[in-house]
Specification:
Helix content: over 70%
Number of domains: 1
Number of strands: 0
Structural class: mainly alpha
Distance between the termini: 183 Å
Number of helices: 2
Shape: rod-shaped
Largest sheet: none
């Protein structure tokens, strides 16, 4: 173009002017086509950006919902853990009481068992004494009856 303009400046003829005008028209057409291409590319980029922006906004909303659900789940889990720990502490204290009660029951059973054994021994001894007494009385009953029948009655 500069070369054509410099030729125009040195010699001005009709053919050169036509060539320059053709070149300028070609440049103008190329600039318009380039402008159109840039506008189309910009519109495409804007549409792509809008789609991406919409997609990202949807993802952000979905992730915010998921975060909210997960936070709710975490909170629920923490509540369950706290309740479970409280229940565990309660049941551990009950277990300690039951174990202490079991030891008391075992001690009481041992005492009662010991008393039962000693009372059984005592009853066996008393039964033997009563059996011997009964045998003795049965033995002597005949002798006493005979004596009473043979003895003179005194009034």
């Amino acid at each position: 173009m500069i070369l054509s303009l410099s030729e125009l400046a040195t010699k001005l003829n009709y053919e050169s002017v036509i060539k320059i005008l053709d070149l300028l028209n070609n440049i103008l057409g190329a600039l318009r086509q380039s402008q159109t291409d840039y506008r189309v590319a910009e519109e495409n980029a804007a549409a792509d950006w809008e789609n991406l922006s919409t997609h990202l906004a949807d993802q952000k909303q979905a992730l915010a919902g998921k975060k909210s659900r997960l936070n709710s789940l975490i909170s629920s889990s923490e509540d369950i853990i706290a309740q479970s720990e409280s229940s565990l502490a309660f049941h551990q204290s009950i277990q300690v009481k039951i174990e202490a009660s079991e030891l008391d029951q075992q001690t009481w059973c041992e005492i009662v068992s010991s008393l039962y054994v000693s009372e059984t021994i005592e009853r066996t001894r008393q039964t033997e004494i009563l059996t011997k007494l009964d045998e003795h009385i049965s033995e002597k009953y005949g002798t006493v009856t005979e004596y009473l029948q043979t003895r003179p009655v005194q009034f």
